[in-house]
Amino acid sequence: MDSSVIIAVVVVLIAAAVIVVGWLGYRQWRLRRQFGPEYNRTVKEAGSRWQAESELEARRKRRMGLDVRPLAPEAQQRYSGQWRMVQARFVDQPREAVDEADRLINAVMRDRGYPVDDFEQRASDLSVDYPEVVENYRSAHTIASRNGPNAGNTEDLRKAMVHYRALFNELLGTESADGKVEEVEKVDAQPSREVEERVDAQPSREVEEKVNAQPSREVEEKVNAQASRDVEENVDLRTSRPEASRYGPAES
User: Strand, coil or helix: what is 181?
Assistant: First the structure.
């Protein structure tokens, strides 16, 4: 074979290798940028970077085929009201409130066009659009799915509500004409603050009442004791005053 042909083949192979390496580097950069923390989680679970990137690329292509649409303003207001009711219920019925929050998330996803039949598929689809909160969504769903003695304590349920609220706020956004997600209405945070304040303030009020009540009792006891002593002294003075003093000095 002519040496010039060999050189040409080598050059072509080198160029092809450079293109492949460049393409792989670009794909890695693009997937890292799009998926954020979900990229590292997927690489860890898949066991290899190539498999993880193939999985994330498949998610991206699947998401592009979905007819995901923004919520109508009326639907936004309706879901916002439902969420406030769920949060208000958490104070007295945290287990039931978390279950309702999970169902409400599914309803919003369905209304926006996400398939909701399988949880893992829901999480995969959401990871394309909301990679920053999808892992917390998985944690919240795990807590909500527990039953029996492993149903979770109040602190676990509170964390689940916080995670659900983060995703709910994201899902309540709408897409602008250029495809970027914009927040048109945030869920009213006042009910959340009221719920947290009611839960957190209960021990504080009890301690404060005990602390404040102690000085009050001490002051009251001192006042009552002083009054009692004053009364006793007045009585003693009246009874001990010489009876003859009313008639002048005694004769010597």
Answer: strand
Contact call for residues 63 and 161 (beta carbons, < 8 A): no
Q: Where along the chain do its domains lie?
A: 3-64, 73-200
- Per the CB < 8 A criterion, the answer to whether 126 and 114 are in contact is yes
Total Cβ atoms within 10 A of residue 86: 23
Read off the amino acid at residue 195. V
Residue 14 confidence (pLDDT) = 78
The string over 15-51, giving b where at least 16 C-beta atoms fall within 10 Å of a residue's C-beta and e elsewhere, is: eeeeeeeeeeeeebeebbebbbebbebbbeeeeeeee
- Whole-angstrom Cα distance, residue 102 to residue 114? 15
Q: What is the mean pLDDT of the chain?
A: 75
pLDDT attached to residue 27: 74
pTM: 0.62
- And the tokens for 23? 């393409």
pLDDT digits (tens, 9 = 90+) for 98-143: 999 999 999 999 999 999 999 999 999 999 999 999 999 999 999 9
Query: What distance in Å separates the CA atoms of residue 41 and residue 249, rounded to the nearest whole number?
Result: 107
pLDDT attached to residue 203: 42
In the three-class reduction of DSSP (H, G, I as helix; E, B as strand; rest coil), residue 157 is classed as: helix
Give me the mean pLDDT over the 82-98 stretch.
Answer: 94
Q: Which residue is associated with the tokens 């009874």?
A: 239
53, 127, 128, 133, 138 from 40: Cα distances, Å? 10, 12, 14, 14, 16
Cβ count near 206 (within 10 Å): 10
